[in-house]
Design a protein that fits this description.
heterodimer, A: 2 domains, four-stranded antiparallel β-sheet, 9 helices, globular, B: mainly alpha, ABC transporter involved in vitamin B12 uptake, BtuC, 14 helices
Chain lengths: 240, 335
């Protein structure tokens, strides 16, 4: 669960979000939308404690992130970013296993239970057949799934994703959104992801958080489809 | 997979032993492998042979082992840290710093009339090189403390190296012929000038560097995904950088101080290890780099001794094809 309390965000000396409050519950999938440069990534970076908000506080599972050490945060929130990870000689299984880092010993030794968690995470994203494949042989869609499996292996109640559907073709965009929806609805994860793919996102998400003109507004998916907020911001009609 | 690794590790260990013995047998005086074994195990052999093997060649061969392992491990951790296949032990300016120290000692001191100063006499080439390498690294760490992007640190390292090299060239230009020749020979590298007493200083420094590197195995695996991902998995990136930089100075700085800059081993060996073991896991790559590095440097030393050429020329000729192969054959190495 993520709670934003009266936060303000800026990038350089530009204020992106002023005095925003919102809550993202466990079992809820929220799409974070807004124009380029509106502050989506900045907000997500603040949520994962990679940066601090200018003002206000961010709570993860009810605890102020300022009072948490990085290793504590890593057991509460996991992150999937836009950076491509295409490392030769690194097998999918081993990449997902790196997600166990917050729980393994100083050498990263995997126990039987860790291996099981990795296998389950691979299965959850439908990539169990790719366990032995090397990362640099995957397509963008496959790569994104493996990165999501790594976040699952981190076993955090909250998963934050920065544009997980960028670079993907249309079927893959829907597939990834469907997968995220399943993680929220059947595994009870709190999923917050930024996207420009309104069609795919609205199909599966519960709510939409919109950053526009310095304000952050959270509305239900149903309201987003019909209410006109998104049409006003993006200046386009949405598929019903 | 596990058994393949076991076979590779066994083969490499055996290769290290064989080449170590061959290295002891190679030199201006030809000594048979049987005599080498006899000298090592205290068996029957000529007193002169025993003296050559134990007092002269053994120190040099042990230095080859240490240098091969140290340069390769520091290269491996720099490649991971900077996520760049062309990073090596010297990207942070360790070699430039060491050259600067030695240049000040060999070229600068005579220019300033300080060559006979007692402080200079006790410092020695190795001491000057070590101080130079450590100074450059401290400067980079101080500059890099507040820098988030590791690429900026890489660029700082390269620029600082170039600036220091320019200063060294000025000193070279101004110095006399004898001092210049001593300096140029130092830059060609040599495993042969290390004394047993010096080895007693090299071993603890390299052991500490290795221990730091081993302590960074898990962080380095996390850093494969880049610093921002590593942070979200709970890694203290600043502390890891500090550990790895310190380890690199101890490993590459010490070898450079006592043997001169030895090129391409640290750059090429980690790639050979990755190819041989087809792994990206540092729990495999670190010991693999140690063994492949030992094999490579022993091999280079045997060739260098047989042809009486400086070691640096041989490591370059053997390392460059590997690097070219990597760049052409596997452009996808780090995304």
């Amino acid at each position: 669960m993520i709670t934003l309390r009266d936060i303000s965000l800026s990038y350089g000396d530009r204020t992106l979000v002023a005095h925003a409050s919102a809550e993202f519950a466990d079992g809820e999938m929220t799409a974070l939308v807004g124009r380029n440069g509106a502050g989506k990534s900045t907000l997500l970076r603040a949520v994962i404690s990679a940066s601090r908000p200018q003002a206000g506080e961010i709570l993860i599972d009810g605890t102020d992130t300022r009072s948490l050490r990085p290793e504590q945060v890593s057991r509460m929130v996991s992150f999937v970013g836009t950076e491509k990870v295409r490392i030769a000689n690194l097998r999918c299984r081993d990449l997902v296993a790196i997600g166990r880092s917050p729980y393994t010993n100083w050498l990263g030794r995997m126990q039987e239970v860790d291996r099981e968690i990795v296998a389950n995470a691979m299965a959850a994203v439908g990539m169990e057949a790719f366990a032995g494949r090397e990362m640099n042989t995957l397509s963008d869609g496959e790569c994104q799934r493996v990165m999501i499996a790594r976040a699952l292996a981190q076993q955090t109640p909250t998963i934050v994703l920065d544009e997980p559907t960028a670079f993907l073709d249309i079927p893959n965009r829907f597939e990834i959104c469907r997968l995220l929806g399943r993680l929220a609805h059947s595994e009870g994860k709190c999923i917050l992801f930024s996207t420009h793919d309104l069609d795919a996102a609205l199909e599966y998400c519960d709510s939409v958080a919109v950053i526009d003109g310095g304000s952050l507004v959270k509305i239900s998916a149903a309201e987003a489809k019909t209410g006109g907020t998104l049409q006003r911001i993006f200046g386009m009609a949405l598929r019903q | 997979m596990k058994s393949r690794n076991a076979i590779l590790f066994t083969t490499l260990s055996a290769a290290v032993l064989v080449l170590f013995a061959a290295d002891l047998a190679t030199g201006p005086v030809s000594i048979s492998l049987r005599d080498v074994m006899a000298a090592l195990t205290g068996g029957e052999c000529d007193a002169n042979v025993r003296r050559i093997v134990l007092d002269i060649r053994l120190t040099k061969a042990v230095m080859s082992l240490l240098a091969g392992a140290a340069l390769s491990v520091s290269g491996l951790q720099m490649q991971t840290m900077f996520r760049n296949p062309l990073a090596g032990p010297y990207v942070l300016g360790v070699s430039a710093g060491a050259s600067f120290g030695v240049a000040l000692f060999l070229l600068g001191a005579p220019l300033m009339g300080l060559a006979s100063h007692p402080a200079m006499q006790t410092l020695g080439t190795a001491g000057a090189a070590w101080i130079g390498a450590a100074a450059v690294l401290l400067l980079i760490m101080a500059l890099g403390r507040r820098i988030k992007d590791i690429m900026v640190i890489l660029i700082l390292g390269m620029m600082l190296s170039s600036a220091v090299s320019a200063a060294v060239e000025i000193m070279q230009y101004l110095s006399n012929e004898t001092a210049l020749k001593t300096f140029v020979i130092w830059t060609m590298g040599s495993l042969g000038n290390v004394t047993t007493e010096e080895l007693a200083m090299v071993i603890p420094a390299i052991t500490l560097g290795m221990a730091l590197s081993i302590s960074a195995i898990k962080p380095m695996n996390m850093l494969l995904l880049g610093e921002s991902y590593a942070r979200t998995m709970g890694l203290n990136v600043v502390r890891t950088r500090r550990t790895v930089f310190l380890s690199t100075t101890l490993l590459a700085g010490t070898v450079t101080a006592f043997c001169g800059p030895i090129g391409f081993v640290g750059l090429a060996v980690p790639h050979l290890a990755r190819m041989a073991f087809s792994s990206a896991d540092h729990r495999t790559l670190l010991p693999a780099s140690v063994l492949v590095g030992m094999v490579m440097l022993l091999l280079c030393d045997i060739i260098a001794k047989s042809l009486t050429l400086p070691i640096n020329t041989i490591t370059a000729l053997m390392g460059i094809p590997v690097v070219v192969y990597i760049v052409i054959g596997n452009r996808n190495l780090f995304q």
